[in-house]
């Protein structure tokens, strides 16, 4: 096992080597206090090009390895990440502010994709189809798509990478990862462990740098890259889509959300409170499946709200490195300002602050509940990405469905009821890629994760997740008389 400092790297990882980018460095800061975690050599578009070339050269030999050989290397990578869980979690908390226990959870969750797809690598079965004439035989085989570019956000510094990279590598693709400039350290740490696991040079590359637009453009426009997989905002997803048009590049997009959390009048209220706290406040509300709007039936509104506010009052705010903390800092000052403006807008339009509402400093915002929320408030339409929970009232199932679907987004949704008929009807009516019934935490490597509408396309995890990284080839054999 290594010390966490032995897992701190300050250059990009390309073709099995640590490579400097442009002459200047950039700072990775600790969101809890703005202190310097480390300086990193600033990779740029040219550095991305180097990585693409390396991945392109590595593609043929990697894709020609047996699925079992690829699987063995991936299993070793999984084990090394788990062995170094404590150190990776520490690095993750230092660069993202995530409470240390959540970081440990993310190491398990992120690594689970590597294990899952190491297993799936060996089950990438094709098909034999009955011939359409007596002398023909028809086969379908699955082949890796090629070099994959993965552009990832800061909120899951490990898992958003492994969710893309693990199915890609299992299928036989090679990858160039461009992690968020806020959280490149976790990505570089796992690059080191990938090397130890035995990936050949050029199969897994990480380019760290601040000029996201230039680096993304090189990935999208390169004819050597066959596929882009992106997790981030809808706005950037649209930019990447446009940039991928000339090369007709395949694209998977996991974009913003606006998750409703519906509590029906027959719900188990205590279970709903627990689910709402977990679904809203994990990583201070900074995930794309975090609860954005809590919709509560008018008959139980008072009871739910009282219990919810009490549960929020028990959350412990502070530096994520402290074991007891479950609400850490927000990622940066911009995020604090954004949360503040949501609250000001809501109060102006009649919302009531039931608890919180305080900017502590440029790093921390107190967990907040807003009562009497309405559809005209900004957070009814936009993703909050912070520790603010607005509670809306509804009076019928139809109204709940209408409110829930009244958004351009369609990633995660949640509802609480004990009525079987209602469970089916609401599940079918929700225009979302993911539905949690009586459950506020729904992410797992075994289940397909992804959205509809402006939340993107493609699915990550599960048996479906590898399909984004393969091409289907139809082979027809004729003249078998
Ligand atoms: P978030 O709000 O989660 O930061 P973004 O979409 O802004 O969402 O960022 C997600 C990732 O996309 C980050 O790694 C960011 O640096 C990167 N990014 C931002 N703008 C662009 C762009 N124009 N092209 C490519 N990547 C970008």
CATH topology of the largest domain: Aldehyde Dehydrogenase, Chain A, domain 1
CATH class of the largest domain: Alpha Beta
Give the overall average pLDDT: 97
Please state the overall shape, judged from the principal axes of the Cα atoms: globular
Helix-strand makeup class:
alpha/beta
Biggest β-sheet, characterized?
Answer: 7 strands, mixed
Mind telling me the C-alpha Rg?
A: 23 Å
In terms of per-residue confidence, which ranges show pLDDT below 50 for 5 or more consecutive residues?
none
Through-space gap between termini: 62 Å
The fourth-level CATH homologous superfamily of the largest domain is: Aldehyde Dehydrogenase, Chain A, domain 1
The CATH architecture of the largest domain can be named as 3-Layer(aba) Sandwich
| Total count of strands | 20
Number of helices, where a helix is a run of at least 4 consecutive DSSP H or I residues:
14
For the biggest β-sheet, the strand order reads 14-15-16-13-12-17-18
Q: Helical amount among residues, as a percent range?
A: 25-40%
Estimated share of beta-strand residues: 15-25%
Hetero groups in this structure are:
adenosine-5'-diphosphate
Keywords: Oxidoreductase
Organism: Pedobacter cryoconitis
Protein name: Succinate-semialdehyde dehydrogenase/glutarate-semialdehyde dehydrogenase
Family: Belongs to the aldehyde dehydrogenase family.
């Amino acid at each position: 096992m290594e010390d966490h400092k032995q897992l701190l790297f300050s250059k990009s990882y390309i073709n099995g080597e640590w490579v400097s980018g442009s002459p200047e460095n950039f700072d990775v800061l600790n969101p809890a206090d703005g202190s310097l975690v480390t300086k990193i050599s600033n990779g740029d578009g040219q550095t991305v090009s180097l990585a693409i070339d390396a991945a392109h050269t590595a593609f043929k030999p990697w894709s020609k390895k047996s699925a079992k050989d690829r699987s063995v290397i991936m299993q070793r990578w999984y084990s090394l990440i788990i062995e170094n869980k404590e150190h990776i979690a520490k690095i993750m908390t230092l660069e993202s502010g995530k409470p240390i226990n959540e970081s440990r959870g993310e190491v398990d969750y992120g690594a689970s994709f590597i294990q899952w797809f190491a297993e799936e690598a060996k089950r990438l079965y094709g098909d034999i189809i009955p011939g359409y004439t007596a002398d023909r035989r028809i086969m379908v085989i699955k082949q890796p798509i090629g070099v994959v570019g993965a552009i990832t956000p800061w909120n899951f510094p490990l898992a958003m990478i492994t969710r893309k990279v693990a199915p890609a590598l299992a299928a036989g693709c090679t990858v160039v990862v461009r992690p968020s400039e806020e959280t490149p350290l976790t990505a570089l740490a796992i690059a080191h462990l990938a090397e130890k696991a035995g990936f050949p040079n050029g199969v897994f590359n990480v380019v760290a740098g601040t000029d996201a637009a230039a680096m993304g453009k090189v990935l999208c426009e390169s004819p050597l890259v066959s596929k882009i997989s992106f997790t981030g905002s809808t706005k950037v997803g649209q930019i990447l889509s446009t940039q991928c048009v000339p090369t007709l590049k395949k694209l998977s997009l996991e974009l913003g959300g606006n998750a409703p959390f519906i509590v029906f009048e027959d719900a188990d209220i205590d279970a709903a409170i627990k689910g709402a706290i977990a679904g809203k406040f994990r990583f201070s509300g900074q995930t794309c499946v975090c609860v954005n709007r809590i919709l509560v039936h008018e008959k139980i509104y008072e009871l739910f709200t009282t219990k919810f506010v009490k549960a929020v009052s028990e959350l412990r705010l502070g530096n994520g490195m402290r074991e007891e903390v479950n609400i850490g800092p927000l990622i940066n000052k911009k995020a604090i300002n954004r949360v503040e403006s949501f609250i000001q807008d809501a109060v102006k339009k009649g919302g009531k602050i039931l608890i919180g509402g305080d900017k502590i400093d440029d790093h921390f915002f107190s967990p907040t509940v807003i009562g009497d929320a309405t559809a005209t408030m900004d957070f009814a339409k936009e993703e909050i990405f912070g520790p603010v929970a607005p509670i809306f009232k509804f009076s019928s199932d139809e109204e709940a469905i209408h409110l829930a679907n009244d958004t351009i987004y369609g990633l995660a949704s949640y509802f609480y009821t004990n009525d079987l008929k209602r469970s089916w009807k609401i599940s079918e009516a929700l225009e979302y890629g993911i539905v949690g019934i009586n459950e506020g935490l729904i992410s797992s490597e075994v289940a397909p994760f992804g959205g509809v509408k402006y939340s993107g396309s493609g699915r990550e995890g599960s048996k479906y997740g590898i399909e984004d990284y393969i091409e289907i080839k139809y082979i027809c054999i004729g003249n078998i008389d």
